[in-house]
Amino acid sequence: MKAKVYITLKNGVLDPQGKAIEHALGALDFGGVNEVRQGKMIELDIAESDEAKAKSQIEAMCEKLLANTVIENYAIELIG
Amino acid sequence: MKAKVYITLKNGVLDPQGKAIEHALGALDFGGVNEVRQGKMIELDIAESDEAKAKSQIEAMCEKLLANTVIENYAIELIG
Amino acid sequence: MSNDFNAIEITPELIAEHGITEEEREVLMNIMGRMPTYTELGIFSVMWSEHCSYKSSRFWLKTLPTEGPQVICGPGENAGVVDIGDGQAAIFKMESHNHPSYIEPYQGAATGVGGIMRDVFTMGARPIANLNALRFGSPDHPKTRHLVSGVVAGIGGYGNCMGVPTVGGETTFHPSYNGNILVNAMTIGLANADKIFYSKASGIGNPVVYVGSKTGRDGIHGATMASAEFDDNSDEKRPTVQVGDPFAEKLLLEACLELMAGDSIISIQDMGAAGLTSSSVEMADKGEVGIELWLDKVPMREEGMTPYELMLSESQERMLMVLKPGREEEARKIFEKWELDFAVIGTVTDTRHLVLKWDGEVVGDIPVPPLVDASPMYERPWEPTPKAVEIDAASVAAPSSLTGALKQMIGSPNMASKRWIWEQYDHLVMGETIQSPGGDAAVVRIPGKTKGIATSSDCNPVYVKADPIEGGKQAVAECWRNITATGAKPLAITNNMNFGNPERPNIMGQFVGAIKGMSEACIALDFPVVSGNVSLYNETKGEGILPTPVIGGIGVIADVAKSMNMALKNADEELVLIGE
Amino acid sequence: MKSAVILFPGTNRENDAIAALEQASGSKPQLVWHGETELPKVDLIMIPGGFSYGDYLRSGAMAGKSPVMRAVADQAKAGVSIIGVCNGFQILTETHLLPGALMRNAHLKFICKRAALKIENAETRFTSKYDAGQVVKYPVAHHDGNYFADSETLDRLEGEGRVALRYCDDDGVVAPETNLNGSQRNIAGILNEKGNVLGMMPHPENAIDPLHGGIDGRGLFSSMVEALS
Ligand SMILES: Nc1ncnc2c1ncn2[C@@H]1O[C@H](COP(=O)(O)OP(=O)(O)O)[C@@H](O)[C@H]1O
């Protein structure tokens, strides 16, 4: 089963990357760009084919490794 | 208009981060994980409210800055 | 004071939740002569916290020897300043970021490095070397691997980006740190001896200026967060760790040094822990003046921020300055060139009060001298550490194989090479690193000169545990030896006192013993203490860490080309043992 | 040889670069700020190491789009010599003055150490003081030095003698074990088609003083002085 995991910074956590991108877009004359936030997307393929089990397996991976849950949230999308 | 940009490595470009994650998941006893690839997700809010225009504006941002098209592909999702 | 911001009712419970004891509450009420507002309560709570007030340690810290002909400025400012000849000064200090690094190793360690560098460049010095003293739990503890790699990456991530070489440190492992690692970071900066910047505000009517990054809701204390009403609707608990932005700090460094090259700054203070509160209070207190802040003018990262949050935020990469009148535009130009925020957010007054306004309306008003002078100081009960039983060397069996014993020693985590760590630090940037990590002390050359600074950080906590006095002495002596081994003359030290819960007499006894031992060694070696930091309550499940008074020392060597290292140079040369 | 050093917000090895250029050429390079649109008339433009714009998004990405880099690209076309070291190399690939990209080191860690490098092409204006096949030691200090290009590009680089340096061991052996960051074919530095633009990850400017532990980097700067004065 293929899946995508989206990892984003929690609300209120400073995002230096997003801030710098916003600034750089402004300097390149792209006006009116706001609230730029940078996150990660991780694509993976796991052996498990049962949806519920796959989801809970990936959840465990997020909690243990993929996301830094002190400052990040994650969302899982199963693709099949 | 809010949008998300997904930036992924092109096929054939090796992905050290993805590989390291795959390896680390294995070490944590998550078996059967394959083809891990890490990409970026950039969320932004642009002033333009017309869909077509917004899309072409963001495309220009990707070409000019957000993606390195030598090694990366991008996909745009408008959220509204 | 009819502002909504302070509508929150101040109850004894709320005061207690802010960590203020009943005794301290009495003092607070006497100072204010009324109930404090919510914002004022927040300010008292941070100013009187262990972290800001040093309430358990101050009494003993005052006994450390801090003077010498080489000392330009001892403890009490952002960092210590010593004369290194040729009209130049070294400015240095060590600081801990233990708890944040345990919660989020990368960001905790990174912001620790960022904080100590600000302490140094706020005084006018360009940082030229970083060190880091690390203590982790047992190597086979399940969390250790994650903590080591995160902390090391964080230290490198910040220091490498700043372009300051990380040239030394120490890394040891012991199970007592399993649930409470130590991350102590040290920075040495270089300044002209006649151009050192202090925090003392002066000049009634002078502008108070905010520079750097915007203020967000970073690091506002967890307990007080829960009781506040500003929380948005999201159910996620707001994280209390700060994220570092080394790029912003690099810009801040360059902008500050550019402005400092002129003469428009009267005083400057970095916003570290307790950000705007401690910086403004310290500036006013030192200058015996008042400060009025217009909080609505503070550059904000998030919407709907309150005075309470603005005063308590620990957002990184910010500074507060008092400028000479009429020099705002000159300063603004520099900060805008470096793409940083710049805002005039207040003025110096003659009231000796810290007055906080929002849209012209007063939202807080605290007399500064009693806030500072009446901050609690405890002479906590302590008991001397009982003498450890001496091990009779004869009772230990000789190893059956000397090679085996040697291999075991070299292979032990504490003795093993730390190359894996320091190769992740840029120890060469600036092009002046003469002795890299891996030796006794690092040596960095002073740009344009033949002379250099030798530096080392040391402590053997096992010794301190066995005998705090002797262990304290030995930490100082080891640092002194490491510096002399390069050929440099030791000048002065900074320190980081990492201990358990000071409310326990045996722990307080370790602290007192270490201070006594350090003092004795410092006096004997003419090696005064010019700055330092204290981190208490390092415990897990009621078990304190090993007492860890880390010593960071510097020395000067006239010609770095003559500095010595430990490499064996040629075959067949004799090895000589000196000393007792 | 007259030279200029380009500064971006976050550049941090500029003084190292200035010292090396001054030592070799006897004159101080001019400093050029990232917002400039015109460059002084010089023989050599150096883009030094550091973390331009924090290396946020991708290392060198934002600096690559700055006004001064458009001017640098014009100068490159006009045949002026350009050298980019570390972050400078990353910036040159981001502006497409050099092919390929520099990705995160394969082991994902920042690495700072003295590295052995094999001079692959000693017939360039940057390397003429060395012998082909000579092993030199310069420090490396980078997080994103993992050179990537598709195999077609790599073959072309090789075929045209545009691989300037490779990671090797002390004896000049180029092998997977001597590849300290995962770069394709151990590549540490490459040239553009015309041979007037060099990008490299290692820092020759940190190997110019006996007290640095070696002076192998001097050859690179003296090559340039000889070719460009
Ligand atoms: N965290 C670290 N950062 C930088 N250098 C380190 C670190 N840990 C150890 N080192 C370096 O490793 C070498 C050996 O350290 P240590 O065993 O503490 O030295 P010694 O006990 O001989 O004084 C020293 O040169 C030290 O600077």
TrEMBL record, chains A, B:
Highest taxon above the source species: Bacteria
E.C. code: 6.3.5.3
Pathways involved: Purine metabolism; IMP biosynthesis via de novo pathway; 5-amino-1-(5-phospho-D-ribosyl)imidazole from N(2)-formyl-N(1)-(5-phospho-D-ribosyl)glycinamide: step 1/2
UniProt key word Transcription: no
GO CC list: cytoplasm
Subcellular location: Cytoplasm
Pfam families xrefs: PurS (PF02700)
Molecular function GO terms recorded: ATP binding; phosphoribosylformylglycinamidine synthase activity
Keywords: ATP-binding, Cytoplasm, Ligase, Nucleotide-binding, Purine biosynthesis
Example GO BP: 'de novo' IMP biosynthetic process
UniProt catalytic activity: N(2)-formyl-N(1)-(5-phospho-beta-D-ribosyl)glycinamide + L-glutamine + ATP + H2O = 2-formamido-N(1)-(5-O-phospho-beta-D-ribosyl)acetamidine + L-glutamate + ADP + phosphate + H(+)
Main localization (coarse): cytoplasm
Subunit text: Part of the FGAM synthase complex composed of 1 PurL, 1 PurQ and 2 PurS subunits.
NCBIfam families noted in UniProt: phosphoribosylformylglycinamidine synthase subunit PurS (TIGR00302), PRK05974.1 (NF004630)
The protein's role, per its UniProt record: Part of the phosphoribosylformylglycinamidine synthase complex involved in the purines biosynthetic pathway. Catalyzes the ATP-dependent conversion of formylglycinamide ribonucleotide (FGAR) and glutamine to yield formylglycinamidine ribonucleotide (FGAM) and glutamate. The FGAM synthase complex is composed of three subunits. PurQ produces an ammonia molecule by converting glutamine to glutamate. PurL transfers the ammonia molecule to FGAR to form FGAM in an ATP-dependent manner.
Protein family per UniProt: Belongs to the PurS family.
Descriptive protein name: Phosphoribosylformylglycinamidine synthase subunit PurS
Automatic annotation (TrEMBL), chain D:
SUPFAM superfamilies for the chain: Class I glutamine amidotransferase-like
Keyword ATP-binding among UniProt keywords: yes
Active site: 86, 203, 205
Pfam families associated with the record: GATase_5
Catalytic reaction(s) noted: N(2)-formyl-N(1)-(5-phospho-beta-D-ribosyl)glycinamide + L-glutamine + ATP + H2O = 2-formamido-N(1)-(5-O-phospho-beta-D-ribosyl)acetamidine + L-glutamate + ADP + phosphate + H(+); L-glutamine + H2O = L-glutamate + NH4(+)
Record key words, sorted: ATP-binding, Cytoplasm, Glutamine amidotransferase, Hydrolase, Ligase, Nucleotide-binding, Purine biosynthesis
Subcellular compartments: Cytoplasm
Domain of life assignment: Bacteria
Metabolic or biological pathway, per its Swiss-Prot or TrEMBL entry: Purine metabolism; IMP biosynthesis via de novo pathway; 5-amino-1-(5-phospho-D-ribosyl)imidazole from N(2)-formyl-N(1)-(5-phospho-D-ribosyl)glycinamide: step 1/2
Gene Ontology biological-process entries: 'de novo' IMP biosynthetic process
CDD domains to which the protein is assigned, alphabetical: GATase1_FGAR_AT
InterPro entries: Class_I_gatase-like, PRibForGlyAmidine_synth_PurQ
GO molecular function, one term: glutaminase activity
Enzyme Commission (EC) number: 6.3.5.3, 3.5.1.2
Chief site of localization: cytoplasm
Keyword match Hydrolase: yes
Membrane-spanning ranges: none
GO cellular component, one term: cytoplasm
Function, in words: Part of the phosphoribosylformylglycinamidine synthase complex involved in the purines biosynthetic pathway. Catalyzes the ATP-dependent conversion of formylglycinamide ribonucleotide (FGAR) and glutamine to yield formylglycinamidine ribonucleotide (FGAM) and glutamate. The FGAM synthase complex is composed of three subunits. PurQ produces an ammonia molecule by converting glutamine to glutamate. PurL transfers the ammonia molecule to FGAR to form FGAM in an ATP-dependent manner.
Record note on quaternary structure: Part of the FGAM synthase complex composed of 1 PurL, 1 PurQ and 2 PurS subunits.
Protein name: Phosphoribosylformylglycinamidine synthase subunit PurQ
Lineage, top ranks: Bacteria, Pseudomonadati, Pseudomonadota, Alphaproteobacteria, Rhodospirillales
Gene name in the database record: purQ
